[in-house]
Structure formats: C-alpha cells, structure tokens
Amino acid sequence: MDPNSKSSEQVISEMVEMGFERFKILEAIKVVGTSIPNVVEHIFNTSSCSNPEPPTTHISKSCSSNGKILKKRTLSSSVQVPKSRTINHYFQSTDRAAEKKKNVVVVDDDDDEEEEYKKHLPQMEFDIDSDITSDWEQRASTLLQKHFGFSSLKSFQKEALSAWFAHRDCLVLAATGSGKSLCFQIPALLTGKVVVVISPLISLMHDQCLKLTKHGISACFLGSGQPDNTVENKAMRGMYSIVYVCPETVQRLIQPLQKLAESRGIALFAIDEVHCVSKWGHDFRPAYRRLSALRENFTTSKLKSLKIDIPIMALTATATKRVREDILKSLCLSKDTHVVLTSFFRPNLRFTVKHSRTSWASYETDFHELIKEYGGNNKNGGNKKAFTLDDVSINSDAGRMSDTDSVSSYDVDDNQDDYDDSDTNVKQSGNIDNHKKRKKLTIEFLENDVDVFQSADDLDVTCGEFCVQSPPKQCELSDTIDPPTRPEKRLKMLKEPLDQGPTIIYVPTRKETVRIAKYLCKFGVKAAAYNAGLPKLHLRKTHKEFHENTLEVVVATIAFGMGIDKSNVRKIIHYGWPQSLEAYYQEAGRAGRDGKLADCILYANLARKPSLLPSRRSEDMTKQAYIMLSDCFRYGMNTSCCRAKTLVEYFGEDFRHQKCLLCDVCVNGPPQRQNLKEEACILLQTIGAHNACRYSMDSSYNDDIHFDSKDRRLGLGLRPSLMMLVRSIREQFQKFLTTDILWWRGLARILEAKGYIREGDNKTNVQIKYPELTELGLEFVKSMSEQTFYVYPEADMLLETKTDKPFSSFSEWGKGWADPEIRRQRLESNRSPTMRRSTRKQRKSKGKKVKRDLRTSRGRLAAKLSKHK
Ligand SMILES: Nc1ncnc2c1ncn2[C@@H]1O[C@H](COP(=O)(O)OP(=O)(O)OP(=O)(O)O)[C@@H](O)[C@H]1O
Ligand SMILES: [Mg+2]
Q1: In total, how many domains does the chain have?
Q2: N or C: the chain end with fewer CB closer than 10 Å?
Q3: Average pLDDT, the chain
C-alpha cells in the first residue's frame, strides 16, 4: 500500500476542516479516489453556480473578511478565465455568493452582468492591497499567529514586507536561519494571490512545501523533479497559494505565469538563495541569471491588466558586496530596489578551527569526543541500533563524481601545484566518460552532479503538491529563541553544557561520507551518509530520520543542501577545507537555529594548501574560485582575529561587537607576538634580489638591493617560486637550514597582507607562489634596521614550530627533500616492486612516455622531475 495514500475518513476530515461540505467530498471520493487535489478539482468542476460550497482555507478566510477584497479579486480573475469551471471560477462564484450576502454587486457568468460588475468596480489588482493599507501589519501579525504560531514579525521581515507593500523590488540579506521565508510567504496570505518562489533545490522546495502544508497553506513545486504533470496545470490555474519553481523551469512557464498573473494574480516573485545568480559567489547557477525575464515580462507595459509591475523579492544569507551588486544588475531589479541588510552575526555559534590530516588515521582522535557525546564507544552499540549502510559500498558510485581523495595526498606538498583548471582535473579524476559528459553542459547532467553543482534534482520526491492541512496547535509551535547579543549573556551561555541535538559532518567527497558514517556506526553512533550518488530511498530515509531526531549524525557532501532548517542542530563539523567562506558560513549556519549555543568546527590540514574540487569553470570563474578558496584558507590560518568577526566582515559588515567571546581565538587568546624582523628582512631581500636578477636584463629596474651572486645558481632569470627562495635562504643561512617551508609560507602571507609583497604570477593561487617585492616592501627593507616587526604567527607557522622535525612536512621521508637527487631516489624507492619493474620496462622502451599517476601530487611531482632530468 502506498504510504502516502490517505483513507477516505482522513480526506473527509481534512477537507471538512478546509470548509468543503461532507456530502460533496463523499461524492467526489467515489469518482476520483482519495487524492485531495483530485477531490478538490472534482468538486470545483461539478459544483453548480447557484450552490457553491466555499472552501474555508486561509485563502477564502483571509478574503472573506473583507468584502472589497473578494469582489476585486473576482474581477481580476474575470479577465481571462474561461467559461469552464476552474478553481478561479469557483472562487469567483464563492466570492460572489459571499458578496451577495453583504449586499455588494456581484455578477454571474453572463457577460452583461460581468460588465455591470466592472462598472461598479473598475479598479483591480493592487487595490486589494490598498484595502489593507491601514492595517496590513496588524493583519500580517494575525496571520502569522494563526498559521505559524509566532507572536510578531521580526523587524527585517517588516522592512521587507513594507517594501513589497510599496510595490518595490527588494533584496533581503539576512543571516542563515533568521526567517527569510516568511517575507515571501506572508504576501500570499495577505492578498489571496499566488506567490511564485524560485528556489534552487528540489529537497529545499519539498521541505518548504511540507512545512507550509503543516501551517495550513497550500503549496507545490514545479521542475524537473516533479513527477506529477497535473500539478503544473493546477498551479498555473491558481490552485496553490505558493508555487515553488526551479530556475530552469521558469523560462518555459513565462506565458502560463502571465495568464496566472492576469487571472488569480501573482502577489510577488521571490528568488530564494539569490547568491546563485552570481559568478562571484558560490553555487553559481546559470539559469538564475536568466531570471531577469521576470522583470521584463511582468510589467504593466507587457500585461495591460496589471496596475503595477509585479514586485520581485530576492533573498540570501551569503552575499558579499560584489555579489549583491551583481544580483541587482543581473536580475534587472528596479533602480528603486530596497535593500534590507541585517547583521550576518550569529551570536550563539561557537567557531573553532582544528588541525587534522582529515584522513582515516585521524578519525580516532577527531571523533572520539563525538562518539562519547552520543554515548557510543561500544562496538555493539549497546542498546542503540546503529543505522546500517550495508546497501552502500564504499567503492560504489558514491565516490565517483567528486571524489578528490585521489588528488589530495598528504605526502608531498611543497612543490604541489594547485589543483588546476577544471578540464585537467576532470581528466585526472580518471573517468574519461564522465569527462566527456561534463563537456556537455546540459541540465540533465547538472542533475546528476549535485555534489559539485547544486542543482534542482538533488532529491526526487514522491509528490510535489501539498494540500492544506490544519495548522498545528499552538503548543506544537515554539518561537525560536532570539540568541543573546549581549556579551554577558554570551559568556554565560559558554559555561553551560551544549544541549542535545544532532550533528552534521560536511566532507568534500562522496567516498568520505560513507567511510565516516560507517566508522561512527561501528562505535554505536546512529549515523548515516548523505551524498547525491546514494540511492534515493536511502536519501529520503536519511532526511526523514534526521528531521525526526532518530539520527544523531549525518555525514554529508554539500548535497545535504541549502535551507536545511532544523532548530536543534548542535554541531556542524567541516572535515576538510570548504571551497569558500560563503559555503562554509551557510553550512555552519544550520547549527543553533533555536538560539542556543552550537558548535561549528572546521577540521583542516593546516599543513596543506586546499585544492579546488573538480568542476566546470570558465577562466574567470576559476580565478574567482581560487580567490574564494584562498580567503577560506586564510580564515583557517588566522590565529589572532575573532572568527565571527572575520566571517561577518567578509560579507562586508562592520562587526560592532569586537569579539564574539565564544570562538577558539576569543577563548584561548592569540599566540604570543614575535618579532620577526630578521626573517622578514631576509625573505624580502631574497625576493628583491631574485626580482632584481630577473629584471636586470631590463635595465630599467632600479636595483637598490644587494644580492649575492650565489643566487644565480638558483635559477637566474627564472621567476623564483617561494619554494626556491626558501631553498636559497636555507643554503645561505646556516641558522635557517632546518626551517620548514610551512613556516616561510606563513610569513609570506603576513608580508603579503601588509602589502610588502604581491603575487607575481598572473594565475591566482591559494597561497602566494611567486612573490614579488612591492614599493612598500622596498621601503620597508630600506628602513628595516630602524624598526621591529612584531606579528602573530599564523597557524602553519605554529604548527611548524611545534614539530621538531627538520625540513619537509613532518616525515622522515621528507628529510633532505630539497635535494633533487635525494628526491629522485626517494620517489624511485617508494614505488612498489611491480611498479619499479614496470618503470624499468618503460625506460627500456625508448621514446615511450612513463605514465605517472597525475591524480596524486607525488605523481605529478615525479612527472615534473622526470621532465627536468
Ligand atoms: N517572526 C518569527 N518569529 C519566530 N520565529 C520565526 C519568525 N520567522 C521565522 N521564524 C523561524 O525561523 C526559522 C528559520 O526560518 P527560515 O527557514 O525562513 O530561515 P532562512 O532565513 O530562510 O534560513 P536559510 O538562510 O538557512 O534559508 C524557522 O524555523 C522559522 O519558523
Ligand atoms: Mg531560506
């Protein structure tokens, strides 16, 4: 039996609550079965004009409280309504019946009467709104209380609604979990018109539709994930108050939506997660850019029956200044667009960064706390039954598409090139077929690749239409607690233990989701993996169990998407570098929506530069992706600035609190400042010397800095990489012989942040790679003898000083790595006997290229070295 099907009794009781007459419902059930939408449709189609039974959904309720509203909507719907009985027609009849009772002129189907009606009520459309001018706030509060159980609108919600009410376009920038959805849901309730919401993910639309249904508001979603093709038809005839559409579908629906605008009416177009519009943000979706069609096609000049252009409300929690400007421009929002900007600060989130190699070997150290918290650490799981993943093999499809395990080896990093341009990456990821498919930029493809591209069809769902259920009782609803903004309260919160609640662990690869979930299950934690490569059934189950608090931990890729709105998520763990701070803050923002203390922990290998995940990007976008990744890297490396401040300021907000008091930097304090005058001076001089050496061919370069001729050995005329420069320093200065590149990288970042050096490569890198001295740097070097240079060492510098191992990255294997001959021998000896045999063979076959595994940095390095031999 279909678990979604309802019994006749259930349908009757729900529909009676909606205001339908029992006998009509019974009659309809006999004909069309127990699907509520079909029953509603049947009743509409068979009801006689003279005796319509008004459904007392919120639509008719909100309208019937105001006679004028009813009749005007009737008129508005009369513009294009066909003679056949549709829901609009039904509403007309309903409204008219109600009007008759109130002695208001109402027309019947016949044209004369309609004309008569028009004479009496010549105004249409937003007169509906002007009727509620005086007390719309009061009405909104009543509806808010009735449908959602909240006592009042938040001030940013009021601001956004006021803008909508003044028919202005509006861009709402408000923190994750602040309540942006209400800004576009209330207009549907206030006007009885339809609100069309553009949303990027099926799972997000599905979640929101379910919630709306619970709150007594009819909703549906349209898009490639919609299995029922009658839903679209019904939606375009105005049967749902809120219609969610994925951006790819909007273009196709322009005409039907225009008809809808002229019949039942469209109160608002809401574009949720609008940062997807911009290439300069994360989650870019090309179809979002084409949403400018909404501004073009729903204006008074295009649709004569409209009195005003239909307002557009765009909403996001993560947009930098550049992204905001791009949104306004790309969507062609009006010049008069109102921008609602609230603080991005989430005062109850405790941000921490921890060093971890984020590999299998570090699970024990990193997860033992978590296992303890969930009462695990028992191989059999005690009384708890771990959520099994038997149906999912680690080697299955789950790890296929965005698996970067193969590209992120931990062994060698120093000469590591950043994981480069998308195309190469895809080739390197080993799946040529996939690569070919990737070249075709089709929507179908996007839909299969959601871990990398957040697309519409991330989770197929059984049904995309949602009928009104009675709103939950008051006691079932609780206002979210506003988190404490006052410092004393935050400090107090810190002393209290974390409340109970689930954890989400975000990892970059599909394979990792399964591996970690299995690991946790083994220790009795109820954990499940979530990535777009897993069976849909499993994904649905995970979603459900997560929302029902049955699961303790979900280990997910970014496919556990935007808009996950569960109030009691206590921990968000990022296990591996995120791709941008936007993505990081949005994902972290899923914690602590109940206003109580919640943890956001980033475990990252601070000894490695993060790499870009394989993806299709234009040159521009690759550059931007590197910039975003680099900002994220800097966030992790920072040791002295409050984490919340860094995040909030990243989004262009002035952080007025100075400190969050909760994050690891605020709690532990910054490390001791060190005077790195000598080191800075040596590095700058070495850079200067190499630069001078390069430019000496061009005599215009004014060389003020002395450089040793020994440097010429180290690549005269070549563009010196930081690695080469450090090697040069190590050779020249005995005291720095055993210093690690990690430490110098940290110093280079500090010097770059101060403006003393800049990247000399025209490619953007995560970390400065080919440093060049700036004017400021030159000044600094000249005056170096007179000053000190106190700085906070960055995370990688601290890491290096904590390990007493000499040069290269924490392994005996790495000792002497600077010497090319030693390096060659090591690479040779590190190969397995079979590999060695085959390499010998390959060498014998002259002219034939030795194949390197370019997916690993070691392989790439070996390939490079063999080129130079
Ligand atoms: N006026 C209000 N009073 C109390 N709670 C509210 C109010 N408005 C919204 N909320 C609650 O806030 C929570 C978050 O709402 P919502 O999902 O709209 O957030 P959001 O801003 O869209 O977040 P995200 O950026 O993650 O999508 C919901 O559980 C909602 O019920
Ligand atoms: Mg939202």
Answers
A1: 4
A2: N
A3: 73
